[in-house]
């Protein structure tokens, strides 16, 4: 069964304040949540897994429905319910020091496990612990396993500490997929694995991946027709979530690309929550996840100043497609391994620095902004060194702000706004210096 | 004129271990290196690396456990946000202040994202040093995780052989494995002795003697362990009316020595802990027959400690190692002592607490940093815990 939606005509986008693609993405997500919460009635089985290392094509081979706890936490952040969930988790013994995605999830469970559509999430049938690029994932699913008491499958993705994928890493992962993941998913679902079915899904993934890359790279234009951080949160939703490998994803990215190309043809900048963005004044590369509890307010601090994000690392947490990776239907298991190995947070710090410095050059950005997240050591540990190194290599100014994913206690609007304003002044000074030197 | 007070044998050993502990310039390791031309030193962070391979390359494995409470962190704080634990910042401090300038290689085990990312930082900061992120399998099947791990070990063996300029032979590996087997047996003996008579081997002393193994060659450390055990057995010490506890959660960033002392002063004999796990990570002798790397891999997969950085595939086994530690050591309670912002320890804690609750084992929890100075709150908490165990354990 697939979620169907009506594709609005690209021309209609001009008449609405929000990107039509954003609306469409919302519809897809809503449809997916309805499928999840209807599972007890429809008999569909649910596999919970994570965004980095999300093996959606494989999950679909077993007719399983993908549920991503980070996405649920994000939804709770956007709806401003995560704060209470985090507090609930802390009340029942979880440390104030640890990841707020986890605590939002645990708190949500304690408070009835209600999905964004107001209906109860069914318990997952299997936890596919794709242990990719984040230590917390392992503990998160151990915690969920304690609650749900369901089958839990560990898929360990080795870290790219030396900046390369070795044969040993790929073989280890393929062996795990073949001898651990697939047999267990067969057992849980009662569906026999069909490698040709996987190939078909992978072929579909490639089409969506190609279009996503074209969308993201459209930001190389001036003005950029997209915001590659705030706007990209919407753009990456389907492909990082439950839609990679589906016709829905192909249609969505085709439509999104058409919309972006239309904006490009008309010399338009990104659509913001307040409508068309004014003149593009600053082009930024951003490292780190956003804050979700004050997402709109946070974004507004940028577009009010004419700042557009032209590239971001966060839009690569579910796959680094712009550097060339595509799922390869000709080597279906190896490609799943390589996908997991290559996600952004599984890359070494020097690799991440290279990426960010290259983005600044390729997207002709004014500098690097790091939003350092209290909850997320995978991203945050080492960011101060990254900032200095990128500054050194590019000669462009960098700035550092701090917030959290879904804990509203760690979003200090005044502090962040002050920092951003100072940063934009710094960019202006740099420009003035460059002009006078010329 | 008063005659000088003669130090007991145990005190003399502990004094030497204390001097090694306090020496943040690593004088002993430097002296070892300069004693013969061509010697090399390879540092490693918690919680586990196969020191046997480093030793087999004629190198000194050097445990780097942060800067403790005596190191003033000046540069290190500039590399980390306030919400990241203390050990990476003091380790960076050790590096950028030149205290580790004699170290030829650094291994960063896969314990958490902070130490993982520190491996990349080290590559950037010290490009002349051999740096390896040391990944271990989270799959424990010989034909899956085992094969992967054997190949990882082979890479490490190859890299260290390149560093010294000649291959590491199987014989060299077997010799080193035998030495570390012996060392672990002695550490096991010390832990068993302390569990039996904790007043004879106070936790802070046992810790210092164990900690000396981070900077001394294994042969020398084994001799120290033997001497300390003999001295501790021979010397009668007063027994306090303390309860018996297992301390857990302190496997990476080390608590200040004063914290360990404070627990015992507050009425809690530490009869088991997860400090310096590298010294007893493998729980049985590693075979010295056949393929040494395969043997090291097999030991890791099937005969190694459990801790938060390791996945537990069997839900029924989750946390049972802690229950077993309590039973084995005759402990009456557990103290969760975790460093602030330590993801592995703090994320694992609720699950371990549920297991203890089901097993009827009392516990308390607090956090520390390696440079925590105020012990009074911890002493009060531990004292109350001890009193409650003594007063209510029979009810």
Give the structure's gist in a few sentences.
The complex is a heterodimer of chains A (438) and B (395). Chain A is α/β, with parallel strands linked by helices and 438 residues long.
Count, helices of chain A = 17
* Alpha-beta content class of chain B: alpha/beta
Globular, elongated, flat, extended or rod-shaped: what is the shape of chain B?
globular
Strand ordering within the main sheet of chain A? 2-1-3-4
N-to-C terminal Cα separation of chain B, in Å?
56 Å
Structural Rg of chain B: 21 Å
Descriptive notes:
The complex is a heterodimer of chains A (438) and B (395). Chain A has helices at residues 20-37, 39-42, 56-61, 69-78, 82-91, 100-110, 136-148, 167-189, 195-217, 230-240, 247-265, 295-303, 332-342, 349-362, 377-380, 383-394, 413-437; strands spanning 45-48, 64-67, 126-131, 151-156, 271-272, 275-276, 282-287, 307-312, 367-373, 398-403. Chain A is an alpha/beta fold and 438 residues long. A four-stranded parallel β-sheet of chain A has the order 2-1-3-4, sandwiched between helices. In chain A, strands 8-7-9-10 form a four-stranded parallel β-sheet, with helices on both faces. In chain A, helix 12 links the parallel strand 7 and strand 8 (307-312). The longest helix of chain A is centred in the last third of the chain and has 25 residues, at 413-437. Chain A is globular and about 70 Å long. Chain A starts with 19 loop residues before the first helix and ends with a helix. With 395 residues, chain B is of the alpha/beta class. Chain B has a domain at 22-168: Rossmann fold. Helices cover 49% and strands 11% of the residues of chain B. Chain B has helices at residues 9-22, 27-35, 51-56, 87-96, 113-125, 142-164, 170-196, 203-211, 218-234, 257-265, 292-302, 320-329, 343-359, 376-392; strands at 40-44, 59-63, 105-109, 130-134, 243-248, 268-273, 333-339, 363-368. Chain B is globular and about 60 Å long. The model of chain B has no long low-confidence stretch (mean pLDDT 96). Chains A and B meet through helix 7, strand 4, helix 8, helix 14 and helix 15 of A and helix 5, helix 6 and helix 13 of B.
